Amino acid sequence: MKLFFMSDIHGSVYYLNKALDKFKEEKADYIIILGDHLYHGARNPLPKEYNPKQVIEILNSFTDRIIAVRGNCDSEVDEMVLNFPIMATYSNILYNNKRLFLTHGHIYNENNMPKLANGDVFIYGHTHIPKVEKMDNIYIINPGSITLPKKNNSHTYGILERNTFKIKDLEGNTHKEISFG
């Protein structure tokens, strides 16, 4: 199974379409959205082609392929217009004998980790900064932001296939990678 990860869309039709083009090119099975679907948030600038209503239409056309969690900019009204659940603080996926703990990062994060077993994978968004590392036998991954990258990073997404997680820019270049032992 091949999983496509993105975070922090923040209502940008432009970057969502670019990311979904990569989803199709990668031939991934599912899209994992790590929160902040529709709104830019008070601390962020308006993203390119900001149009939450159009983002709703686009995302709803992929309903059967999306697993999502709630970001700090997401609300109950957002779930009323999206045809898939987004209000969970976290989700878990079992992948090749590993638990993938999925969250946005505003509640569970590196300073407030959930209880995970050795070899599990903690995947979050929120910071808009790509990251891959192994700490205390837990894999910690952030695919960055497709729309509003920070600290001079590229617009990025993640791909998980055959126990290797790659963070790629929207041109398809690999920036970071980690393999699960």
Automatic annotation (TrEMBL):
InterPro entries: Calcineurin-like_PHP_lpxH, Metallo-depent_PP-like, MPP_YfcE, Phosphodiesterase_MJ0936/Vps29
Superkingdom of this protein's organism: Bacteria
GO molecular function: hydrolase activity; metal ion binding
Keywords: Hydrolase, Metal-binding
SUPFAM superfamilies with a match to the protein in the record: Metallo-dependent phosphatases
Calcineurin-like phosphoesterase domain mapped to chain residues: 1-161
Family, per entry: Belongs to the metallophosphoesterase superfamily. YfcE family.
Protein name stated in the entry: Phosphoesterase
Organism of origin: [Clostridium] ultunense Esp
UniProt lineage: Bacteria, Bacillati, Bacillota, Tissierellia, Tissierellales
Gene name tied to this protein: yfcE
